[in-house]
Amino acid sequence: MISDKMKAFVNSSSAIRAMFEEGKRLAEIYGAENVYDFSLGNPSVEPPSEIKEALIEVLNEENPNMVHGYMNNSGYEDVREKIALSLNKRFDTNFGLENIIMTVGAAGGLNVILKSLLNPGDEVITFAPFFGEYRNYVSNYDGHLVIVPPNCETFQPDLEEFEKSITAKTKAVIINSPNNPTGVVYSEDTICKLAKILNRKQQEYNKSIYLISDEPYRELVYDDLEVPYLTKYYDNTIVGYSYSKSLSLPGERIGYLVIPGEVDIYEDLVAAANVATRILGFVNAPSLIQRAVAKCLEAKVDVEIYNRNRELLYNNLVSYGYECVKPQGAFYLFVKALEQDDKKFAQEAKKHNILIVPGSAFGCPGYVRIAYCVDYEMIKRALPGFEKLAKEYGR
Ligand code: PLP
Question: Signal peptide location in the record (predicted)?
Answer without folding.
Answer: none
